[in-house]
Amino acid sequence: MPTRPTTRTRPATTSNGVGYHWNWGIFWEMSPEGTGTYLDMIVQGLRMTLITAALAWVIAFIVGSAIGVLRTLPGRMAPLAASAWIELFRNMPLLVQLFLWYFVFPEILPAAWGIWLKQLPAAAFLTAVIGIGFFMSARVAVQVASGIEALPQGQRAAATALGLTPAQTYRYVLLPMAYRIVLPPLTSELLNTVKNTSVALTIGLAELTARARAVQEFSFQVFEAFTAATLAYLVINLLATMAARWLEARVRVPGYGRA
Amino acid sequence: MSEPVIQIEHVTKSYGTGGPVLRDVSLTVAGGEVVVVCGPSGSGKSTLIKCVNALEPIQGGRIVVGGQDLGDRRVDLPRLRARVGMVFQHFELFPHMRVLDNLCLAQTKVLGRPRAEAETRAMALLDRVGLHAFAEKHPGQLSGGQQQRVAIARALAMDPMVMLFDEATSALDPEMVSEVLDVMVELARSGMTMMVVTHEMGFARKVAHRVVFMDQGQIAEDAPTQAFFEAPRSERAQQFLSKILTY
Ligand SMILES: Nc1ncnc2c1ncn2[C@@H]1O[C@H](COP(=O)(O)OP(=O)(O)O)[C@@H](O)[C@H]1O
Ligand SMILES: [Mg+2]
After folding, report:
1. Between chain A and chain B, how many beta carbons pairs sit less than 8 Å apart?
2. CA–CA min distance A185, chain B (Å)
3. Which of A3, A26, A200, B202 shows a CA-CA span of 20 to 30 A to A186?
4. A72 contacts A120 by C-beta, under 8 angstroms
5. Which atom of ligand 1 has the smallest separation from the CA of B217?
6. What residue segments make up the domains of chain A, in order of their start?
7. pTM surpassing 0.95?
8. Which ipTM was obtained for this model?
């Protein structure tokens, strides 16, 4: 009679085969960096992730809105320029873009500028903010443009007929409704911005994922380190989603979308 | 009749690379005059109305509104448009603004009126169209007929020298058509200069001074109202009238 194969549970081991020692207490131990506990390392990473994501989002939102508006302007030049921006920043992988900004961009500048740029104390941080900001701006632009295009053609005509300038038409008539329409997809682009900050560990940014990896390298507590990081990302996403829901309810237009 | 408010002279218009949509159109609307424009779908009525407000560029001829040539680069188009009221088939109220704010936006941003003055004017006009009680509502909370009356009030708030209507009642449920027509009739009787695209021949008979019949981008007939209904000269106008009046 054939023996029934035993179900193998994956043993909690590290690659060297030694049994894994769970130790949640690790976070209260001092790290060899000498600047605090392991928990402090995670918190520092979390803070860097939040600051980077927030500033990158500000850039993405402002630049993305401007490009999105350009894309919907009458005429040929503005939409063409907007499409070029969108295709350029959306189709190149983020990792490649960060490398280009960080390693290649200083080299193609006049030598003095390049050197000054490379010696900036926060070079990785600035690169991440701008690189992720521009990358996300292309995605925000697509959303904003689709929101504007979703509005009836007559809205622009009505605003123009009342004597509003194109700038006033966008400011008071088109954008307020367009943003409302694309609030849900914009929320997920915000969450993408948070997640994308982790790519910046490749240029040396001490953000959450990088710090979790450092915790693991010093302490060998890989599961604890990445569980902490995962929980932190989860909490950020939950808070951002809740904030978006609250905003959606706050700006809901009475009677709009009624059949 | 007094000074012409709208002078359309030999206007030619096409969209993009398509064929001409307006072909040598000439039409004058004098101050205080009510002109009804009718004609089959696709004959260029909406296009003509849009050109009068410079919402669409023209390729030939010229359009003079309130003494200002729309093709003149020195003309401040937003300022001029502010004095030309326009009412659309689908109302085009701004859905995120309360009715009151719909009426105040251009008054404050374009005319530079103080907010309080703009609100006083807005409330007076809402009163005139019978919607005083709806000032705080959003457009989505109003019926189609109510929305169109608000849209008329919004245009009137700019103290227009002329009002343009493009099928203002054709998107409405039948029971709401008359409440909008009543407002338009009252407006016509108050002496407002009006250019009205409509198929409501009852409205035309009641208040129009002239009826213009358009066909395939041309003005096929331009006659005093009574003459138009009693003895249309062009064959196409006769056919059109028999079609829309017999049912
Ligand atoms: N934005 C546009 N682009 C291209 N063609 C248009 C546009 N608007 C109208 N047309 C065309 O111009 C012609 C006249 O249209 P329109 O002025 O809307 O007529 P009407 O209001 O009398 O029904 C039609 O053949 C229509 O297809
Ligand atoms: Mg039409």
Report:
1. 86
2. 20
3. A200
4. no
5. 14
6. 35-251
7. no
8. 0.94
